[in-house]
């Protein structure tokens, strides 16, 4: 490389471009592992208006692993059912999942993004090694075999061992690397309106989709005390006509929402799209969140997918930086995350194709078919696929599954035993393992947890899989399971070899 900055001292282990939820979660997870992180954000101040409004139980657990579980629960509210109705009010679909998910959080939670971001950033500020810099624009990205140099608009530069672009759909990092995107050809214009009502009001259902060809409309929670409406642009109106405050109030009027009883926080025209970056890694630079994948909002998985990216990357970067894993470990990132992200994109698009129907004849046929299939119950949301490739022992039963979080003496399992590499057993103990393997496991932050019979829900999980040992990765996916202590030793030995082999 011709850039002389490549010879400069390293400022941080990892440079993160973008201080949204994905970049901040990645910063927290790395800093909690003792890594130094510089976060570079183009905007001088945090974005104060709502955007994402939903996360699922797995992402709630990932927030918990950042040390902010209680704070996130305080700024979110469960929303169990998402009901779809036609213009006449006939139910076409009721889907969701009731109660607590396997990760120990509500299946679905609604929130206000500025409050959530403030919670994550406050946690980042508590941790030594994090440096969040706002009002800095990235202009260049150079790298060699040892480091990445990120040039800034003011002429300065930041040098790091690795860099991650978490800078959104129009990612500067992705563009500077020359990485293309696969556009799925999904384009619909919507007006998004976020409102704070002066008085509390009960909405039943909390989340509602109105499949009315005269105006497809979404009405959902925007987090505690807030509501969001989304109105699709019709073929005979312009984007400019729709995306005005005056038009927003007009569209809210049938809901008895007006300037006399509500405050409009945000109104914005937005084009829903579906895109995936051609590749998510270029040497020492990786992409995460909307920089890597973009999806319509209908499945509520846009931010969730990015948080999963951050959780997948954090522990891998930590092991590589610490010399405990071959750098090729990072090549498992995209194969592990892409299938889940593409599943969410495909699901979002299919839901959107049902919703975004402005033709009355087509809508009538849709309504007849869907209404006939309604049983009165709640249809479950299709679960995202587990890991089928990457850092798992695929020959092992349950490898790639999410390991559940149950309550232990009234507290979440992770709050009691911590998050990270966890070898959990309901029929053994650490003393059953080879001391050298156990010491190695502790060296990568691992711990052996014996649950015996005091956690019946977990022992039931083991029984259903014919196992008594389970090795959980730091992102809560299972590396492998085993029947006995000898099998658990084999699992640890396999992991040690897997981490250090070149890819």
How is the topology of this model organized?
Elements: E1 12-17, H1 21-31, E2 37-41, E3 54-56, H2 57-65, H3 69-74, E4 76-78, E5 81-86, E6 91-96, E7 108-111, H4 113-126, E8 130-134, E9 138-143, E10 148-152, E11 157-165, H5 172-177, E12 181-183, E13 188-197, E14 207-211, E15 217-221, E16 226-232, H6 239-242, H7 245-252, E17 262-272, E18 275-277, E19 281-282, E20 285-287, E21 293-294, H8 302-321, H9 333-355, H10 360-373, E22 407-408, E23 411-412, H11 413-417, E24 422-425, H12 435-443, E25 447-450, H13 456-465, E26 469-472, E27 478-482, H14 485-500
Cα-atom Rg, whole angstroms?
A: 24 Å
Mean pLDDT over the full residue set: 94
Secondary structure category: alpha+beta
Major sheet characteristics: 8 strands, mixed
Strand percentage: 25-35%
What is the number of E strands? 27
Kindly, what is the distance between the CA atoms of the first and last residues, rounded to a whole number of angstroms? 25 Å
């Amino acid at each position: 490389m011709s850039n002389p900055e490549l010879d400069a001292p390293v400022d941080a282990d990892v440079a993160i471009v973008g201080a949204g939820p994905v970049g901040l979660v990645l910063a927290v997870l790395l800093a909690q592992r003792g890594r130094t992180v510089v976060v570079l954000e183009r905007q001088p101040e945090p974005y104060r208006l709502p955007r994402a409004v939903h996360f699922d139980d797995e992402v709630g657990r990932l927030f918990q692993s950042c040390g902010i579980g209680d704070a996130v629960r305080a700024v979110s509210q469960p929303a169990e059912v998402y009901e779809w109705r036609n213009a006449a009010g006939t139910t076409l679909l009721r889907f969701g999942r009731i109660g607590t998910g396997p990760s120990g959080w509500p299946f679905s939670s609604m929130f206000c993004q500025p409050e959530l971001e403030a919670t994550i950033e406050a946690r980042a500020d508590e941790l030594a090694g994090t440096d969040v810099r706002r009002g800095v624009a990235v202009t260049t990205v150079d790298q060699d075999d040892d480091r990445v140099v990120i040039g800034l608009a003011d002429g300065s530069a930041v040098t790091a061992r690795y860099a991650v672009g978490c800078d959104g759909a129009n990612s500067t990092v992705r563009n500077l690397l020359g990485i293309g995107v696969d556009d799925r050809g999904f384009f619909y214009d919507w007006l998004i309106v976020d409102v704070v009502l002066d008085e509390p009001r009960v909405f039943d259902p909390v989340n509602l989709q109105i499949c009315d060809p005269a105006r497809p409309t979404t009405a959902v929670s925007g987090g505690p005390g807030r509501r969001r409406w989304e109105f699709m642009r019709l073929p005979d109106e312009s984007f400019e006509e729709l995306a005005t405050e005056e038009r927003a109030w007009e569209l809210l009027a049938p809901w008895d929402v007006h300037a006399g009883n509500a405050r409009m926080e945000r109104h914005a025209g937005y084009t829903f799209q579906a895109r995936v970056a051609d590749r998510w890694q270029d040497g020492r630079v990786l992409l995460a969140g909307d920089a890597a994948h973009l999806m319509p909002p209908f499945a509520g998985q846009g931010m969730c997918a990015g948080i999963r990216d951050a959780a997948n990357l954090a522990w891998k970067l930590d092991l590589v930086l610490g010399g405990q894993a071959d750098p090729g470990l990072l090549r498992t990132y995209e194969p592990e995350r892409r299938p889940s992200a593409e599943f969410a994109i495909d699901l979002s698009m299919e839901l959107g194709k049902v919703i975004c129907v402005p033709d009355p004849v087509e809508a009538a046929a849709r309504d007849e078919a869907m209404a006939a299939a309604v049983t009165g119950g709640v249809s479950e949301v299709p679960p995202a696929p587990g890991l089928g490739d990457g850092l798992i022992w695929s020959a092992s039963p349950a490898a790639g599954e999410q390991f559940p979080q149950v309550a232990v003496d009234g507290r979440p399992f992770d709050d009691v035993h911590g998050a990270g590499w966890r070898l959990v057993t309901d029929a053994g103990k650490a003393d059953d393992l080879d001391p050298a393997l156990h010491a190695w496991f502790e060296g990568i932050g691992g711990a052996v947890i014996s649950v015996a019979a005091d956690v019946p829900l977990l022992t039931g999980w083991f029984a259903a899989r014919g196992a008594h040992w389970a090795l959980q990765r730091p992102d809560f996916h299972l590396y492998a399971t085993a029947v006995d202590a000898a099998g658990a030793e084999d699992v640890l030995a396999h992991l040690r070899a897997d981490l250090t082999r070149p890819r």
